Every structure is written in C-alpha cells, then in structure tokens.
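hey so i finally got around to running the thing on that chain from the lab meeting. sorry it took forever, my laptop kept dying and i had to restart like 3 times. anyway pasting the input first so we r on the same page abt which one it is
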Amino acid sequence: MHVGILTGGGDCPGLNAVIRAVTLALINEAGARVTGIERGFLGLMLPASRPLDAAAVSGILAEGGTILGTHNRCDPFHYFGAGGADASADAIANAGRLGLDALIAIGGDGTMEIANRFIALGLPVVGVPKTIDNDIVLTERSFGFDSAVAVVSESLDRLVTTARSHGRVMIVETMGRYAGWIALEGGTAGGADVILLPELPFSVDAVAAVCRAREQRGQATLICIAEGACAIGEALTVQSTLPGSPDPLRLGGVGAWLQQRLQPLVASEVRSLQLGHLQRGGSPTPFDRVLATRFGYHAAQLLKAGRFGRMVALQGDACTSVAIADVAGRNRRVPPAHELVQAARGLGVSLGEI
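ok and heres what got predicted. didnt touch it at all, straight out
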C-alpha cells in the first residue's frame, strides 16, 4: 500500500504530530510506503512530494507548523494556476503517476470539501480534522485549538498586570473566523471581564457600561473579542481579501474598531492588541500532541480497514469517524445556550448583551 499525506489550509500546532503518527503506524503495522505531498493540494498539481520514513518524522512531535508545508489558496477544482479553471484531472493524473493507493488529507472544512470532491472522482481519501478555530462539525475537538487557547490565556495573564497598573481597558482580539470558540475558552481561562463572540452581536454601550462600572470601583477591564464578532447592526471587520482562496475574506481589526468606539465613552485609556498568527505558531501543547497522535493513529486504522471517505473525529473522548461528505464546507459555531456561555453569564462576565 502506498499512501500520500498532505496538510491543507493554514498551519497549526500538532500537524507534525499527525504526520509522525500516520507514518509510523502505517510503516510498523501495514508495511506501507508513505509519501508526503508538499504544500497541500498544490503538491498534487505541480507535483511535489518527498518520501516519509521513520527517520524523516523523527524529532518532529513537538515542532510547530508542518514539515510538508501548506497552501491556503490551492483548490484544484478552481485552480489559480489555470485562471480558476477546474484542473482536478491533473491532480488525479499526478496521484496516479506517484502510484498512490490512498490519500490522507489533514485540514479544515475547506480541505474536507476538496477531499470530498476527489472522493467522487475515485481517489480514496481519509480525512483528519485540523483547525485552531475548533469549528469543524461532528468532532468535539480539533488539535491546535488547545494551543491557541493557551496563547490567548497567557496573553490575558500578561496584559492584566499592565491594565491594573494603569487602570486601562485592554482589548485582546483572537482568531476564530466565524466561530467564537477561541475567544470563549481563552477569555474564560484568562479571566476576561468581557467576552465578545460572533454568535452574539454585542452592544458597544453595554460594553462601555461595564467599563465605567469597573472604573468606579478602581478596576481595570479585560475584553476578549473574537475576530468575527460584530456590534449590533454592524458588518464583519474585514482586514483584507484574498482572491482565489476558498474563503477570500481575511477577518481582523475588530479590536481596534471597538477601541475607537469605546474611548469616547469611558474615562480610562483604551488599548487593543491583535494576537494574530501568534495563535498559530510555536510548539503544540501536550494535550494537542496527544490528540494529534490519536488522530493520526486512527487515520491509519481507517486506511488499513479500507474505510475511505471517512474523517477522524473525537466524540465523547473516543476517536471515531464520520463521513467526509457530512463535514465538507460546514462550520460548528458556539451555541448561544452552550454551558460555558451560561457559566460566563453566571460568573458576571459580560457578553455585550443589552
């Protein structure tokens, strides 16, 4: 059996742990030949690949990023190298030239959508969910998320000391796209006084009222806001657009937007910080290393059993699998009645609600 592995979309702590687990499990348990496809689906178009063996994946468990590289714009069905035309036949042909019997695609909802289309063309695929945003449906957790939450929590821990020293309002903007999981868990872990989520449009006046009340008590205010959050009646804050990308909108800047709106309404100085790619970089947390290893091993088991068209998933702390078709192009957002949302309200954390 000859298996290809690729990492699609954005980079993420834990990708190398998956690559390592898949490679070692397939070699040790199935005697398989493993090839790494470089730079995501772009590696199937060029083509570009490298052999993977035990030596190639040695020492990468704790390494951030992906040794194979990735690409967040390459969709072979709308290939930028062909003016947006469907070039998927070239990818299939190159997979054939490499002699691949199956492909493991590690990525988010966009990667799973592309993988699902390749399955329809006859390419056997197993998926592994990857996103710091934790927004892939039918899996309770994705690796990389815990690492991102740790960065947000540590950032809030550091910022609260300077906020208290100066009596400031400090705004921390997290990633997460259209889901608020990072802001919700990171803000909770970091003791934020206000947490603003895409799922719950907020009132600037309500946030200002919290800040003023804390001012009167001599307290600083920590605000954790997701990049996809927006005030009632306002649109998403778009930092840039990337034509040709499966999701061309690059969100960002809502923290600075809120800073400008809040400053006239409060006496304290208001400052904002956009954490950006700090949440993607660096070594994965021990939790993410273990989860990524579990996912990689389970993906190898699906391949050995010939269970193609499935994506590894975590449900009830057990690794299982779901149909890639049921995941493709879908997002998992924070339910307004989620227990952590209710806990935040119960602890007196403002969600910007009127």
